[in-house]
Amino acid sequence: MLRSMTAFGRCETTLDWGTLSWEVRSVNHRYLETGVRLPEELRALEARIRERVGQRVGRGKVECALRIRQTTSTVTELQIDKRLAESVVKACHALESFMMNAARLSPIEVLRWPGVVLEPEQNLQPLQEAAMQTLEEVLDDFVASREREGEQIKQMLLARCDSVEELVARQREHAPQAFERWKDKLLARLADIDSDPDSGRLEQEMVIVAQKMDVEEELDRLQAHLGELRRVLELDEPVGRRLDFLMQEFNRESNTLGSKSNDAQTTQTAIDLKVLIEQMREQIQNLE
């Protein structure tokens, strides 16, 4: 199934102590580039998160952000290392004798001293498991969003394929008529000249022009490219780069068709083809 590289997903999980919320968004990129923003206590999960995103996403610039909000009921009393606090206070008082007009020591300043406030030991495993489980849920939503947009792009590409096929069929019918009209014009001009042309030379020139105006090979290649495009659209894998290359081939054939044009309708067909190809190319840039 086709997937767009532009998508957004959000998921939130409520636990006893608060909530976990994931946001995952992506934009177009040549390769897979994953950015992860985590709370400090979950920094150890970064490698696992990158690996998991890489398993679910093939291409794009992906930003993953995790936020933790604790409820007030989970806030515990501060635990203070009283011995260290006393040592800090005594040291400050001892320095006061060497200082002129020393500012009064604030309790807040003592609490800011490293180690005075004891950090309670936490079992991070439940939090890590909850974070990874919520990540799976948000990735499900995120990938589904990419697939929905990818399906819309697919339908647009198929509609453009039908339009290209109509142009190819119209040009097949028109090509012989274009040569016959050119031939009639040439003979009419020669008739206005009061001389008999060399029939052998005239036939030779007509063959040369017919070869130059022959676009059957270009039309056959366009038809083959259409078949390949429809086949690739049904593949269950990232196909953005393959389709991008295929658009280059489409563009090459339409340019050749235009260069061989000898009448207004063929020129218009080449222009219409280039417009459709450009529309497809712009949408393919969004595909994974």
Explain what you see.
By secondary structure, the protein is of the alpha+beta class. It folds into three domains: 93 residues, Ribosomal Protein S5, domain 2; 40 residues, no CATH class; 137 residues, no CATH class. The protein is built from eight helices and six strands. The strands form two sheets. It has a four-stranded mixed beta sheet, with helices on one face. It has a two-stranded antiparallel sheet with strand order 5-6. Strand 1 and strand 2 form a beta hairpin. It starts with 6 loop residues before the first strand and ends with a helix. The mean pLDDT is 83.
Summary of the model, kept short:
The chain has 8 helices and 6 strands, in the order E-E-E-H-E-E-H-H-E-H-H-H-H-H.
Mean pLDDT: 83
Poorly predicted tracts of residues: none
Oligomer: single chain
Helix/strand/pairing category: alpha+beta
C-alpha Rg, in Å? 36 Å
> How many distinct folded domains?
3
Q: Would you count the extended β strands for me? A: 6
Q: Report the sheet with the most strands, covering strand number, pairing sense and barrel closure.
A: 4 strands, mixed
How many distinct helices? 8
Across the major sheet, the strand order is 1-2-4-3
Series of H and E elements: EEEHEEHHEHHHHH
Query: In percent terms, what proportion of residues is strand?
Result: 5-15%
Shape: elongated
Summarize the amount of helix as a percent range: 55-70%
Calculate the terminal CA-CA distance, rounded to whole Å. Answer: 10 Å
